[in-house]
Amino acid sequence: MSAQPGTAPVQPVPTAQPPAAHARHAASDPRDVLARPLAATSLLDAVRDLHRDVERTGFPLEIEGITSARASRARLVDQLGEHLVPRLTELSAPAVVVISGSTGAGKSTLVNSLVGSEVSTAGVLRPTTRRPVLVHNPLDEELLSHHPVLESVTVVADEQVPRGIALLDAPDLDSVLESNRESAHRLLEAADLWLFVTTAARYGDALPWRVLQGAVERGASIAMVLNRVPPASLPTVRGDLLDRLRGHGLQGSPLFVVPDLGPHEGLLPAAVVAPIRRWLAMLAGPDRARTVIGRTLRGSLAALRPWVDELAEAVQAQADAAGAIASVLDAAIEAPTAQASASIRGGAVADGAVRARWSELAADSGPLGRVVRPSGRIRGSSREGRARVAAIEPLVEDLTRSAAATLTAAGAHTEGVLRAALTGPDAPAGGASVDAAWESSTLRTGRRSTAEQAARAWTAQGPRVVRAALTVGPAETSPDGIARPRRDVSREARRRSKAVNALGDVGLAAVALAAASGVREARDLLVDLIDTAGERAADELRDDLVARVAGQVAVERAAVGEVLSDPDLAEDASSRLRLRLAVLKGLT
């Protein structure tokens, strides 16, 4: 059966008219991309750099517009990786003509009929095309050998395909299989020209027109085949379809009409597909193929600009959201820090085992009992001091464990406050994403370890602080009103020496640590032993522990901050994409 007389004439240049913006760009730049090999080399580098950076771009935070941003990124990755990079890498490679359409449109049958043999599976069961098929002339094999599309298609070499083009039978756009749909859209990005196949019954479906509109936006060259058209409805269907094409900016696209042959198997009659074969043969000519490739290439490059701008804005939105989250978290830890510090100053570390241990040690029969006689004299020799140090060692361990428990509790409380700030009613945009990425198990294990290290470091400071306090004598006020230490008088020096003999540096440090933890009796004993030096030592050790608990709160803040340290959330994350775009604009 032959083609209907109403078949639209083949246009001299078988491409879609570019959108107005693309047309202005082409008119303002008379230089043909394909005619500038040195510039094309630079352009290839720029496109490769852009492809790499777009591929690396992520969107860690679930904020408004994230679905659209991820779709834009995927579209850009496909367009750059499947079309622009391979096309600029091998400008002389055949034009890739992707045959696409909806389920049952007859794509595979059309490809087989154009080639004259069964190269692509066609049948009545849906989905029919599972693995895409690319058919090319054997002499074009080397030029196509590095094209990334070959990784996901079945490649067939056939001499019936004119040199200069390659036909790619893509899966259904509306396939019931998601993998087929994804493959179809990805392969469309590899096209130098789209040959869209639809039927008289389904040409009004919304999905193909959405896809075609996307093709127009990227400046792709497009042709259409209207398949299975009943002769009686040809004028109406053809007229309506031409109106739709004009409405979508496709008035310059070739339109081929294939009549309804009724139920049949195998290839279409040669006469039916002859107009399409002649058009492909003409398209395969060096000049025509270059024209189609160059126009689609220019359109694709021009379309990159708004896409990359849109992507950069989405990346900036992520960075802005991360900044807002960081501010909320910084404000959230103020209360836990103040609360933890107040807890230390209120004697939380002394509660429980520490007080019980002190009561045991300070009893009349204990090692610390009656160290200071009622007369104020200090009792004890160096030998007794060493014995007391051994007896006091469990107190230091109790202090270490209690301090570690207090630090751990402060960390756990801080985590709760931070998570509430991230997920509560007033949580910032993207806060839930940060909360989900925050590893609780690792955090808790690290918290205990960090708290224990901090507690041991605190108790280890005791001897140093006591020794430092003992080297500073009582303060005296100078004529200018400023208090300055003066050298010990002999009586004070002798008393301190006796205190060291009675308890040793380590014993005095244990008492000072107990005093710093909140044991009032320990502070009183320390003052009795070494006077104001004891006050200084206890206060310094208490302040040191307050600083450590504040540090524990900071550790919690830093842990969640690691999520926000993602390079995709950096303040300047979008600048990399904008730089790539600026380079690309300069070359095109």
Q: Quick gist of this model?
A:
60% of the residues lie in helices and 8% in strands. The protein is built from 19 helices and nine strands.
Q: What do these coordinates show?
A:
With 588 residues, the chain is of the alpha/beta class. Helices cover 60% and strands 8% of the residues. It has a seven-stranded mixed sheet with strand order 3-2-4-1-5-6-7, with helices on both faces. It has a two-stranded antiparallel ribbon with strand order 8-9. It starts with 19 loop residues before the first helix and ends with a helix. The relative contact order is 0.12.
* Spatial gap, N to C terminus: 48 Å
Rg over C-alpha atoms, rounded to the nearest angstrom: 40 Å
The secondary-structure class comes to alpha/beta
Major sheet: arrangement of strands = 3-2-4-1-5-6-7
Unreliable spans: 1-31, 124-129, 475-479, 481-488
* Principal-axis shape: rod-shaped
Number of strands: 9
Main sheet makeup = 7 strands, mixed
- Please count the helical segments: 19
N to C succession of SSEs: HHHEHEHEEHEHEHEHHHHHHHEEHHHH
Portion in helices: 55-70%
Percent strand equals 5-15%
If you average the pLDDT, what whole number results? Answer: 83
